[in-house]
Every structure is written in structure tokens, then in C-alpha cells.
Amino acid sequence: MHKFKKARLVKSKAVKGNYIMFYVWDVQKNDLVRQRKYIPKKYKSDAEQKAYAKDIIKQINSALAEGYHIDRKKVSKNTIEQQRAVSEKIYSVREATTAFIEIKKAKKLYKRGIEFYTNTLERFVKWLEDQGLDNIWIGNLDNGLIQQYFMYLLTKRKNSAKTYNNTLGVLKTFYNVCLKQEWIEGKNPFDKIDKLPDEYGSKNKPFTNEQVADIKEYVLEHDPYLWKIISFVYYSFMRLSEIRRLKVRDIDLEKDLIWVAAQTSKTKKRDVIPIVPALKKIILEMNLEQYHPDDYLFGTNQTPSATKMGENYMGKHFRKVKDHFELNDDYTLYGFKHTAVVNWYKKEKDIRKIQKMCRHSSMLMTERYLKSLGLLNDKDAVSELPEI
Questions:
Q1: CA gap 319, 333 in Å, rounded
Q2: Mean pLDDT of 213-240
Q3: Looking at the structure, do residues 226 and 144 belong to the same domain, yes or no?
Q4: DSSP character at residue 25
Q5: pLDDT tens sequence across 9-23
Q6: Is residue 247 one of the residues assigned to a domain?
Q7: 359 with 242, same domain?
Q8: 388 within domain boundaries
Q9: Digit-coded pLDDT (tens) for 35-58
Q10: φ/ψ of residue 304, rounded to 5
Q11: Is the domain of 63 the same as that of 172?
């Protein structure tokens, strides 16, 4: 086991502010070297910084205990040529990632999804290449090497928790496909990497009722089509990418349902969402009977059409609203979904309904989601306890 010194939070009055410091073994230097990871500027309060640091320190110390170290001359024990001598189903990491992307394309994954997988895997392969390891057999991706990569994401690339977790998700999926294709055997080594809690920031912050009223008045006067989009986000709890891919045929006004196709849904399976009266009123105003069932609901020229709305349309139009009200980057169009969740929870306190509407796979996921919005306050729950 390589020597190390555990990570700890260091308070600093320097320009870069507080940071996490630890010492890791450097093989080439034959000594411990100091490493620093600065606390992101978005965590302004002492409580936010301590919460962020607590989980990052846990992750770093776990990696150090697993044997994370720096070795710029590490080479694979088994070369790709040696492995191919005993089997035809041998892929280097680079070859496996290329094959993986082709499999995803064959499943007709949407364009941005393909780009996300491709870019994430290319960064991983590029890092391996810098270590001289991009052509190793995928079976040689051991826990030590993987820990080293995720430590690199934390300390060198300074990934946020969300970016870190997204990378972990892609690499887990990639390795699972390798297992399914029988290019390798055994267990997924990426399963040993823990996700980082992503509850410190306030991205997609819910709007207050007063803000909603002001925004509605402004948008209806200056950009009424944008209000239709906002209404879909608020009343359907759908993601913006899902809304862009909706088609006229997906709207069932007889049963008051929205059918979300598997290739469109975030869950990758066919979903159904109820149409509430307020949203139905807006849909009726769109006169969908005049359009072809295969037309995109939100198409070009602010009407259903064979061509879906541009990727940047929603963000570009909502940016004008943010500028008008001087809203910071914590407020986004997707924040209207969070606004709906907050309003609904405060009215009914029904977690099961929210789970179904958000299409969460488990109640635990919904509980974490509600906590991240400042709901499920334990103090409020205990205050309802009957007296004895």
C-alpha cells in the first residue's frame, strides 16, 4: 500500500479561497506530493462549503485507501497482442468505445445523447492515452486505474458533482455493454466508485408565486408562444428535450393523456402523463386537428410542423425574460418544473403522486429530489406529531 495523508479542509484568505488538501504518493518522485482542490466559488456560505468538502474529502480518502497514487510510467501487465493470441473477442479500450457508440447509434439514440456519450468516452480515452494506456485490453481497467481517473476529474479537471456523476454513469453503461457483448467477463469495476451528492447548488431554482405572476404578465405581452412552452414544463413535469420531441399524435385529448415515446422519454420506456385542465385549455388553442399527426408539436415558425423547434430556441427566448427581471443563472426555464413540484407538495404532501408525475424509479429518488428543493423538512414533520 502506498503512503498518503488524508484529505482535509483548509481555510484560506487567499484569492482562491478555501481548499481541500491531501498528500499522495508519486512513484517517480519516490515521495509524497501535495495536492489541492479548491472549493467552487458557487458555494458561498460556510455551511455550503463544509457540506461540499465533507463529501469530496470522503471520496478522496476512499480513493487513497484503495491505493490511488501517481505513476506516469505505468504500463499494462497484459498487452492487447498477448490477449488476442488466446481469443478473437479482444478489444482495446479505444476499440471498445468505438464499438459501443455504434451500438448506441443502431438503437437510434437521439443526436445529443450520442454526442454526450462520445465526448465523455473520448475524454476518458484521451486520459488513458496520456498515460500510454489507450490500447490496453478493456479487461485491464482495474480499480486502481479507475480510481486514478476519477481523482483526476476531481483535482485536475475540477469537475462539479453533476459532471462527475454523469461521467460515472456513462462509463458504467459502457462497461455493462462490454459485459453484455461478452468482450469481457466478471464484474463492473466502475460500480466501486461512489456518486457524489449533487445537492449543494441551486440550479433550476423554483420561482416564487410573485415571480411567476410577473413573468406570466411579461411573457404573455412580449412572447406569448413562450408561455405555451412554460405551461408544458409546469403542468406536465417534462424535460425540455422531451417537449421538443413531442408530436401531434402524442396528444390524446379524448383521454386527456400525453404519450411519451420510449426514444423520447428520459426513462427510455413509453410513459404516459395526464393532461390537467389548465394545460388542456392551452393545447386546444393550438388547433392540433389542423396538423399532421407526425408533425412536431413545437415546430418551426411557432406552429406544429415536420421540423422540430431548434435546440436553442427555448433558452434564447427565456434569456430575454431573465435579462428583463435581472435573474441570475440559478433561474432557468426548467425551474418551472421545480416550481410545480414545490407548489404541489405544499398543497397535498403526497410523495407518491409526485413520484409518478416525475417518473422517478423509486420513492427514495423522489425523497432526495424533494430534499434538494428544500422540502421534506424534518422539523415540520415532527411538529405534526400528536401530543400525549
A1: 9
A2: 94
A3: no
A4: E
A5: 999 888 888 999 999
A6: yes
A7: yes
A8: no
A9: 888 888 878 888 888 888 888 888
A10: -60, 140
A11: no
